[in-house]
Amino acid sequence: MLSIRGLTKRYGERTALDKLSLEIAPGSFTVLLGPNGAGKSTLFQVLTGLFAADEGEVTVAGFSHRSEPAAALRSLGVVFQQMSLDLDLSIRRNLSLQADLHGLPRKVAAERIVEGCRRLNVDVDLDRKVRELSGGNRRKVELVRAGLHRPQVLLMDEATVGLDPKSRRDLLAALHEDVATRGCSVLWATHWVEEAEQADRVVVLHKGKLLADGSREEVTRALGEPSLEQGFIARTT
């Protein structure tokens, strides 16, 4: 569903991504685990077309970033690390704007907005301004927004930063439900080891390079420590 081959991105003399290759299967939940500065956000910026890679190729749902960029980007939904909602608009207006950008018919958009907000328990706040919401509920709205056009791949970049434990748990549960019901693929970037607990697959990134890739147990063994957390700390500090 998402194919990354030999991806390299440099900033002057610093290499943020170093010949990174990765394949994400349909209907899977993959955690991209890496410390700050590992290259996670750079990877997401390349995947979403904000930055151009220096080398390598990306395809999303079979569409090439280079030759079919519009089709590739239509297949993606994304929640960036920094909140990007308009604080002075209501939930409904924020989501309607996104639906318009994707060309969704108004009736379809209205149904999906209500459905998505109900699923994440923010439907009672549909007409409240976003600035009146808690951080956890703002993230939920961003997740609804990312899925309005029914993308085949969801990218989540440090999506739980600043959230309390319950909000973090609720957000992860909602994403796992999305994988189960819609069969979308999720790539979840984080530096929190506990967020890899229920992942189908864990990918460890450090200094732009792939350190380990596999199930939680396989990655733990590959890192050579008794636990994933111990191995992650030992190999990335």
TrEMBL record:
Keywords: ATP-binding, Cell membrane, Membrane, Nodulation, Nucleotide-binding, Transport. Pfam families: ABC_tran. It comes from the Bacteria. The keyword NADP does not apply. Residues 2-232 form the ABC transporter domain. GO terms for molecular function: ATP binding; ATP hydrolysis activity. InterPro entries: AAA+_ATPase, ABC_transporter-like_ATP-bd, ABC_transporter_ATP-binding, ABC_transprt_ATP-bd_su_PQQ, P-loop_NTPase. Belongs to the ABC transporter superfamily. NCBIfam families: PQQ_ABC_ATP. PANTHER family: ABC TRANSPORTER ATP-BINDING PROTEIN (PTHR42711), ABC TRANSPORTER ATP-BINDING PROTEIN NATA (PTHR42711:SF5). This is ATP-binding cassette domain-containing protein. The lineage of its organism: Bacteria, Pseudomonadati, Pseudomonadota, Betaproteobacteria, Burkholderiales.
